[in-house]
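Reviewers of the previous submission asked for a worked example of the structure-prediction workflow described in the proposal, so we include one complete record here. The input consisted solely of the amino acid sequence. No template or homolog information was supplied to the procedure at any stage.
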Amino acid sequence: MKVGIDFHNKENSKTYTTRHADNSWMEEVRQLLPMEKKHMKALDIGCGGGIYSKALADMGIGSVKGVDFSEVMLEGARKNCKEYKNISFMHGNAFETGLDGNEYDLLLERALIHHIQDLSACFSEAYRLLKHDGFYIVQDRTPDDCLVKGDDTHIRGYFFELFPKLVKKETSRRHKSKSVINMLYKTGFTNIKEIKLWEIRNEYDNKEQLLKDLRGRTGRSILHELDDEELELLINHIDKSLSTSTNIVEKDRWTIWMAVKSAVI
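From that input alone, the workflow returned the following C-alpha cells.
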C-alpha cells in the first residue's frame, strides 16, 4: 500500500538530517548576498532537519532561526545543529510565524512552496518579517524542473519515466516560475531574479550506496507515494539504467527566486 510521508511521525525525525548542503548551493547563495554576513539575522522557514540552517551558519551568517510546522522535524534539527550556538529553532508555519516584523536581513524558504497553495499568504508573511532591503530567497522545483530526463546524474528523472502516475502528483503541487514571480511583485517585492541551479544532492562511491539510499526513501518525499513493491521495481530500473557503477554524483535541478523588500505595501 502507498505510505505517504508523515512529517509528524517520530520515525521520520532523521529523514531530513542526514545530508549536508552542497558547495554548489552555498556558492550560489553567497553570490546573491552582497551584505556583510556576520551581522545578518536569517530565518529558515520550513527548515526541516536543519540542513540549510546549518549551511547558512557555515557561510558566516551571524544568527539563524529555523521555523517548521513539525515538532518531529524540529527535534531532528536541534540534534543536527546542536554544536551551533548561533542557530535556534521554533515551531511555527509560513503563514503566521508569530515573530516580530521588520527584523530579518534574510529569509530562506527552500523546498517549501510546493506544500503551499496560497502563495499570497506565504509571501506576505515573509515581507512582514524582513527588514527594509532584506533578501527573500525561495527555492523549489517548477514542473519543468521535475521532468528532466533521467541519466547517470539526474536520478530523479527515472522516477517519473517508470511511474507516470507520479508525474501528475509531482507537477500538480509545483508552481510555475511565472506564477511565483508575479506573486512576488504583487506582494511588493522588487529586484526579482530567477536562477536555475543544478545542485549536487549527494555523491556515492558506488551504485550500491545509491540504491540503499533510495530504498530508505531518505529525504525523497515523492518516493513515499510508492508502495514497497513499486519501490523495488524502481530500484531495479535504476540499477539497469545507470551506465556507471562507481563515483556517482547525483544532481537535482532547482529554481531559485531572489527578491528584495524595498517598498511599502
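The domain at 10-145+174-200+252-261 is CATH 3.40.50.150 (Rossmann fold). We consider this example representative of the routine output the project will generate in years two and three.
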